[in-house]
Specification:
Elements (H helix, E strand, L loop, with lengths): L1 H22 L1 E6 L7 H16 L4 E6 L7 H9 L5 E5 L22 H21 L2 E8 L3 E5 L13 E4 L2 H10 L2 E4 L5 H6 L5 E5 H6 L8 E3 L7 E7 H5 L3 H35 L3 E3 L3 H36 L1
Parallel strand pairs: 1-2, 1-3, 6-7, 6-8, 9-11
Antiparallel strand pairs: 3-10, 4-10, 5-8, 5-9
Helix pairs in contact: 2-9, 4-10
Amino acid sequence: MIRRTLLATALATGLCFAAGAQAQTKWDLASAYPTFNFHSQNLAQFAKDIDGATKGALKITVHSGASLFKGPEIKRAVQGGQAQAGEFFMVSFQNEYPIFGADGLPFLAANYDEAFKLYQAQKPFLQKKLDEQGMVLLYAVAWPPQGIYTKKPVQSAADLKGMKWRVYSPTTARIGELVGAQPVTIQEAELSQALATGVIEGLITSSATGADNKLFENLKYYYNVQAWIPKNAVVANKRAFNALDKATQDAVVKAAAAAEERGWKESRAVDAKSLAALKAGGMQVEAPSEQLKADLAKVGETVIKEWTDKAGADGKAVLDAFKAGK
């Protein structure tokens, strides 16, 4: 009798432990950026907020620095369920769906307020496409405006001709072609090495990427052209999200909204800090010459027209909504 009682107790205890284990869900969230980057820090707070809101029922482990998947692999990894969530740079996937590249159109959105309005115009189309691809858009956060980094002074687009030009998206590649540069595809994790070994001599990227990667160690000039304000999207695998109970889903959505608001505010602050860091590192931070601005404006017109032709009805709807909201 005692033995049966002990066995029954052990069985009941085991079932309780099993139920507890099943109650906790674990997600892996892949990111390509270093832990100290503001996007990564925002992801860490996002995961912490969800942990607190769900009392540990959903645990998200953030894998930064391309430690789980390389940047170009993350979106497909989430889509295929190898990671439950991930962060990807939208403009890099413009060839897959033009709307991903809308925020990379040169000189379309001139500041953060306009960039956020462009995001609102994009958002319904992004949500629909990601849903079709088996993902849920959680939130998106802007990078600081993109500027030009070079080893030598640049007064016009002609000064970029022949330069080994780092590209990370179809738009940056097309700009390189239009100014006569030599496009070279380099991911952020490989940026410092590519500069140190002379694989690239110039690039367009944000002040934050420049400061994070200490571009002032290899490049001398930064021209604050504010070419565009691209975004990272944070997404979840749709099956993984739908498997959560309603309360947990609500907690994720609420934490995502907070992360988006926090991230946009932090991006503005990071831009100012990053520009100061570039100057402190010895880089000459300058406004573009009138000639360079005029040359780049012409390049921008060409790129936007080409994008609009490819983007079709969805692209026209995004641009119309954006212009209406300005």
